Amino acid sequence: MKIRFAPLRLTTGFALLLALAGTTIPVRAQPSSPPPEFPVEHFFRNPAITQLRFSPSGRYIAALIPHERRLNLVIMDREAKTKNLITAFKDFGISSYRWANDDRLVLLIDDDGDEDLLPFAIDRDGKNFIKFDDTKAFIEISRTDPKNPRRVLAYSNQTHRDRVDPVWLDVKTGKVTVIAANPGDVRSWVLDWNNVARFGIAGRLLEQTILYRDKAGDDWKTLATFADGEPSWRPLAFAGDNRTVYVTSNIGRKTFAIYTYDTVTRQRSAEPVFADPEDRYDVTEVIIGGTEGKVVGARYISDRVTEVYWDPTYQRRQRILDQALPGLVNSQQLVTDDGRQVLVISRSDREPGVYYLFDEQNKKIEELAVIRPHLDPATLAPMKAIRYRARDGLEIEAMLTLPAGRTPRGLPLVINPHGGPFGVRDELRYNSEVQLFANRGFAVLQPNYRGSGGYGQWFEQRGYRTWGRAMQDDLSDAVKWAVETGLADPNRVVIAGASYGGYAAMAGLTFTPELYAAGVNYVGVTDLKLIASQRRSRDDRKLWTKTRLGDYYEDADELYARSPVNFAQQIQAPVIMAYGQTDPRVTREHGDDMRAAMSKHGKEFEFLIESGEGHGFRKEENAIAFYTRVDEFLKRHVLAKVDVKIGPTEVLQLPAKSDE
After folding, report:
1. What CATH class is the domain 381-527+563-654?
2. What global pTM score does this model have?
3. According to the model, what pLDDT value does residue 591 have?
4. Residues 37-63: what's their mean pLDDT?
5. Of 251, 225, 229, 248, whose CA–CA distance to 237 is shortest?
6. What secondary structure letter does DSSP report for 35?
7. Dihedral (C-alpha) 141, 146, 149, 155: value to the nearest 10 degrees?
8. What pLDDT score does 538 carry?
């Protein structure tokens, strides 16, 4: 099936070439007046293109594009200049894929929102489509095997649902071969560049054990065991010599940093290879270049994604890219086998992403495709990092988005806490939800409250067992900061979030009703005892819940006291709630019970549940429908009301101007 790529700004001849000698692509300025109100689907339609990847030879590029409102696979032949859609899924889209060789690809698909990924394979020309055994869930297709193009390295729950096994997946037959028998409770692995499983990271009762062996067939030996919360290290990737391994560690440090570890001497390097210069952010990921096992740099999140290279070739390329594409985070994603061409993705808070092909030898950059070409970055709202003090003195970093073309005084405000809550955080990047709110005139504040990840283990631990307490206080203190600085109108503050963020929204409406004019709860927890009861099936899950949330029996009164479902009578503001029927993380009972409690007390709310959806709505039409409801809800309950004080007490309700 032939498709046209004109809407993607991808020209037939791949012709947009930029000479790099002193050339830069200008950054578009912010508008001096508010942009027009864009329709909701402007922000929540599927990307026009995503997940571009070279085939092993570099001749072909694969990508996901929307077809029948689902992400399907397209193949581009760079020599023949052809583009062919090779899948046509209508009920569900492709989650991810990987080239196995130049002729065959492996796909992972979640068909019902339960997060069990099912493997499929298909030829580059759309033939020989096979659905593999769907009785075992796959987690990731990791990498190809240059020595055997019929197989890919994958991770799957082959031996037990709660264990991860490294396997070879035959892309012709679907046969699965376990690479290493799981010695028990191993959740992640590190293979060397001969594809031998050398490290296993096991977790049991919150202890982390590092297992090691020199070669296949050897017995596993324990190198270290770390108690929950104890400073630790863990392996990340082997260097090309298959002796040195890169590790991340916070032993003797405030944050995690990258070190090397010698598997012969069993010694860690005395100094880190790389650490955050300010010792503020964790560094826990290395960047691997090519297929030869060369670790070329590190990637971490400061206030944005940050990539640091120590390999001279990658350093040189990065300097050229950052000069040519200023104001963007430019990531070297893939390099062709001959090393001559690099696939680059450039992003920012106002640019969802542009794919470029960088040919250093010929000194040119080629724009391949724009992820969301209908969005003009000049009309979107800028985001910046700010810091404020919580009531106990703890410094909190937050992302602040100000509506474009508006004076930042007395604005309606959305407090938008992230999910998780632990190990997750917000950073400077494009966010459809944030941009929708900003387009409607809201300032948006995303606090990385205590418990958020990436700031050091100590910071995450500050959030343990503080659901509805100190973590919630951090959000209340964000409101206080925004009001005291004059940024926010105290009578038009909304709290909106998903997952834990949905819990925080309901907790804010319930326990601090004086702060909020409205709330949005998207797949949010409402009953902490219910969560605790659902995590009692295994001892390690039960212990995790006890240390992070509270024990089902010992802390029953506290769990009750911090559950919004038990205090619906305290809610004063309207709320909209949405849940997925097949959500495996926050089951629909949280929504059903909250709806019943609010109905009992005559509270104002809207409620929707979607079948075939899980922890967040993945189908385009459902996401658009939900956010259309949210948009209408906020216009009706917040933006249509402006408090105008006459004298000391009188308040008049006036409609907002049509151009606001």
Report:
1. alpha beta
2. 0.90
3. 97
4. 94
5. 248
6. P
7. -20
8. 77
